[in-house]
Amino acid sequence: MIFLAKIKKGEKAADLGSGDGRIVIALAHAGALADGYEINPLLSFLSQYTIKKRQLQNAQIFLKDLWRTDLSKYDVITLYGNFPMMPRLERKLQKELRPGARVISNHFQFPKWKHNRMKDDVYLYIQ
Fold first, then answer.
1. What is the dihedral of CA 121, 62, 99, 104, to 10 degrees?
2. What share of the chain is helix, strand, coil (3-state, %, to 5)?
3. First vs last Cα of the chain: how many Å apart?
4. What angle do CA 60, 103, 64 make, to 5 degrees?
5. Which helix (H) or strand (E) holds 25?
6. Which domains are delineated in the chain?
7. Angle at 41 between CA 33 and CA 98, to 5 degrees
8. What pLDDT tens digit does each residue of the chain (127 aa) get?
9. In what order do the strands lie in the sheet containing 59-63?
């Protein structure tokens, strides 16, 4: 996912459903200002703890529902979704993201978007 994202230092990136925070941490190590959105309080706490322990200044986790989050400020979005959510998420991202924003989806494809690149079942979409 990080390889396909081609992060430029200082870009804003978000991982949707950030789980234990490993992608947020990888995005931060790649130079992004990385945010994670996680609705599970335990996973959110775990990832916040890990980020604090690693003293990462350019990473943070929000205990927040991605559907109630404005994603328009991000240059890069990463996600591991599921089939039922992909049509709704596709509409949300098309509406909110600015031209040139990159979306990287692990395994699950969007129903209408055509990916620009694929590597090992990870799909890059450019808005």
1. -10
2. 35, 25, 40
3. 17
4. 35
5. helix 22-29
6. 12-65 (3.40.50.150), 97-127 (no CATH)
7. 35
8. 999 999 999 999 999 999 999 999 999 999 999 999 999 999 999 999 999 999 999 999 999 999 999 999 999 999 999 999 999 999 999 999 999 999 999 999 999 999 999 999 999 999 9
9. 59-63, 33-38, 12-16, 76-79, 102-106, 122-126, 117-119
Contacts of 52 (CB under 8 A, 6+ apart): none
Which two tokens mark 25?
A: 């941490």
Q: How many CA atoms lie within 13 A of 89 on its CB side?
A: 22
- Which tokens belong to 127? 């808005």
